Amino acid sequence: MATKGVGMANKGPAYGMSRQVQDKIDSKYDSELEQILVEWISRQCGASVGRPEAGKMGFQAWLKDGCVLCELINTLFPGDKPVKKINGSTMAFKQMEQISQFLKAAENYGVTATDIFQTVDLYEGKDLAAVQRTLSALGSLAVTKDEGTYHGDPNWFFKKAQENKRDFSDDQLKAGKNVIGLQMGSNKGASQEGMSYGRPRQIM
User: 147, 154 in Cβ contact below 8 A?
Assistant: First the structure.
């Protein structure tokens, strides 16, 4: 006998295993980090973005339409702004589109794909800890780049380790190869005779 299905669009309470998973995700949410992120975003964007109510629900509601996020990412680019039009729409697809624009711009700024949250993590509140992780990575990059666009306490975020690129001349590269060649040459004539490695493996 067929049972009537519940519409997938209706997000009901999570039961059983999914409830446990959600609880675990929720436990990763950091209230202290929330305060730092709110303070940073407020300073970075100015009074126009306001401030959320304290707590996860307030934090989600503040960022959910994508406007604050787009304002934030635009302030970090010294030249052309990545999000050309920020639209305070109440339509779900428009809000999700703006979140996606922020995520794309954040990746272009240098946030790694593993630190980028999914749109539903914010829009449906699936994983607000992931949202915090993206914003923390963005803050760390802004402090590290030191382009004069970061407005906040530099101690709020860790500086990322920057790649130490070295440019070698052809002569230096050749000299390096010679050193490696000499080191390899010094091993010539060495043998493994008399060295014991235990019992040989028997192949059945």
Answer: no
Q: What gap in Å lies between CA 132 and CA 138, rounded to an integer?
A: 10
CA distance readout (Å), 110 to 102, 105, 115:
12, 9, 10
154 DSSP 8-state letter = G
* In the predicted structure, residue 182 carries a pLDDT above the cut 90: no
- Other Cβ atoms closer than 10 A to 169: 8
Instruction: Name the nearest CA neighbour of 103 among 114, 88, 87, 89.
Output: 114
Percent helix, percent strand, percent coil in the chain, to nearest 5: 55, 0, 45
Tokens at 188, concatenated: 């010539």
Cα 119 to Cα 67, 115, 151, distances in angstroms: 14, 13, 26
* Complete DSSP assignment for 15-81: -HHHHHHHHHHHHT--HHHHHHHHHHHHHHH-GGG--PPSSHHHHHHHHTTSHHHHHHHHHH-SSS-
- Banded pLDDT at 3 (limits 50, 70, 90): very low
Position 5 scores a pLDDT of 42
Distance (Å) of CA 81 to CA 36, 65, 77, 189: 24, 19, 6, 63
